[in-house]
Automatic annotation (TrEMBL), chains A, B:
Taxonomic classification: Eukaryota, Viridiplantae, Streptophyta, Embryophyta, Tracheophyta
UniProt keywords, alphabetically: Oxidoreductase
Pfam families per record: ADH_N_2, ADH_zinc_N
Record domain Enoyl reductase (ER): where: 27-341
SUPFAM superfamilies found in the cross-reference section: GroES-like, NAD(P)-binding Rossmann-fold domains
Name this polypeptide is given: Alcohol dehydrogenase superfamily, zinc-type
Length: 346, 346
């Protein structure tokens, strides 16, 4: 019975304020690559791990357990979305060699319990980069799809604004909107990202929010007629500025508020009265409530990827050891495109 | 051709901060009680005038004319909802003696122009107090109906919270919710109002927000399982506290934010992330977009009033001279129930 070394990434302690690489550490344990007799678990080899904004909240000591994600357990590897290969399965839905995506551990090998295994998605189409299932073909892709199509009911010609637009979700929202015939503007935090939005993803306009002393003025420049749809990834000052620029019956999909996650107290948003004046809607969502739409989503997005109508940019960190830098970098906006960590390429 | 004296109420200058009675003044002009030949206007005698929270914004110099209500004109009487009797009509829809409700002037007699006359509602049922058409049977009633039924899709047994609950809109929302079988709690700003909510309007609970140092704690006391529906009339700190107490898939109908109207800058709302965590919605609305539902609304509410299933409390100020105190008092919460001004009882 093979016993292997299993590198793992753990959180040292709960973090308030800005996370540092040293808040995380890599250690090693051993694991038997065999499930016990009668087990309903799934033993997997992890290939790609996904760095996602919501993980910042899991690094906090959360007081309210009703939140959509619990605090990380300090005594086992952190968990998150990933792509993995099944080594052995006690769940009849999976067999050795299957590729899956879903919640797994930040480690080389994971034993996924029977309940958690119910939430794994089997990967059928491997005609695309496998790492895409951490991004455009996984949770972030579904997030873009649900937030844009299900919550915002977009129409051709509408004015669409996306914050954190070069990230895993934003880049796809923008491309969906362009394919539909919308006018699309994105904000991001560096010249490199802004260039990417305009040249690679086909946004009509993009701007670096760090270089805009007056976000309201920036939005008025790009949206002289106002904003119909705002895909909200950042919160705080950007949301406040967007509220001043809504068109009648505007829709805001509340996906995340990454600019607020490292603050002790979130910033105040002052312009909510404009939701009333413009008869507009701000609706929050959590993608897991919409996973029943995944097949419909794949039908839309897989052909578009293969035909080159939708492109995707990843920021790939090599090896579990690069995990702390990759994850912490996400909260500083250091990544360009979807941040992921390669544990193993097969 | 009869020429009459016409008392009028005007705004002295645009107001920032807290309005004072002296910001308004009553003057008198004269008017011929006869329309010119071929006029399409409607000449009315005003009976009841409505004091409504949105009027505070009209007392400001509004920079953004896209707002749902323009600034008052300083050189003519202020305008607002009222009940009036037609003296002469150039619009074939109305004839002498008709009773109407809609936008009119704060004066004894008004000439309503042809465009504005299109928005007048003819009053058919006079088997209820005529003043009700400034409140429960007029714009505020429709506001309660639209915000609760159309925006919140309420279900029996849900937990409903209403701020400014004894006001023209709130008292009706609470009674709608009780009739549907919801658990209903209201907040108001005095013991008298709180008593009214519990004894007269049948709310399950009510509290005086001025006596609650911690609104979050107050809401947790009354809603240990959280809030499904919040009918938002006040904004600011109350909204922030409600956000901490949302149930999954909660709906907030954004009707108004009266606590913010006298501030130079609206307060910051910090807890919007909870809209995402709870997959909840905050939707603003303006009742005028829903006036096509007025007949359906009357069908629901008129029988309920006549059968005593829905009651209504008015705060009646006598005479146009009492207008400044009545209107300014509304923004200080001095009214108990729907504030209106009687110009003439017939």
């Amino acid at each position: 019975m093979a016993e292997v070394s299993n590198k793992q990434l753990l959180l040292r302690d709960y973090v308030s304020g800005f996370p540092k690489e040293s808040d995380l550490y890599v250690t090693s344990s051993t694991l038997k690559l065999k499930l016990p007799q009668g087990s309903e678990e799934v033993l997997v080899k992890n290939l790609y791990l996904s760095c996602d904004p919501y993980m910042r909240n899991r690094m906090k000591k959360l007081l309210n357990p009703a939140s959509y994600a619990d605090s990380f357990n300090l005594h086992s590897p952190i968990s998150g979305y990933g792509v993995a290969k099944v080594i052995e399965s006690g769940d009849p839905k999976f067999k050795e060699g299957d590729l899956v995506w879903g919640i797994t551990g930040w480690e080389q090998y994971s034993i996924i319990n029977a309940t958690q295994a119910q939430t794994l998605f089997k990967i059928h189409d491997t005609d695309v980069p496998l790492s895409y299932y951490t991004g455009i073909l996984g949770m972030p892709g579904m997030t873009a799809y649900v937030g844009f199509y299900e919550l915002c009911s977009p129409k051709k010609g509408e004015y669409v604004f996306i914050s954190a637009a070069s990230g895993a979700v934003g880049q796809l929202v923008g491309q969906f909107a362009k394919l539909l015939g919308c006018y699309v503007v994105g904000s991001a935090g560096s010249k490199e990202k802004v260039d990417l939005l305009k040249t690679k993803f086909g946004f009509d306009e993009a701007f670096n929010y760090k270089e805009e002393p007056d976000l309201d003025a920036a939005l008025k420049r790009y949206f002289p007629e106002g904003i119909d749809i705002y895909f909200e990834n950042v919160g705080g000052k950007m949301l406040d500025a967007v509220l001043l620029n809504l068109r009648l019956h505007a829709r805001i999909a509340g996906c995340g508020m990454i600019s607020q996650y490292n603050l002790e107290r979130p910033e105040g948003v002052h312009n909510l009265m404009h939701l009333i004046l413009k008869q507009a809607r701000l609706e929050g969502f959590v993608v897991t409530s919409y996973y029943h739409l995944y097949p419909k989503f794949l039908e839309l997005v897989l052909p578009s990827i293969k035909q080159g109508k939708i492109v995707y940019v990843e920021d790939v960190a090599e090896g579990l050891e690069s995990g702390p830098a990759a994850l912490v970098g996400l909260f500083a906006g250091r990544n360009v495109g979807k941040q992921l960590v390669v544990v193993s390429r097969e």
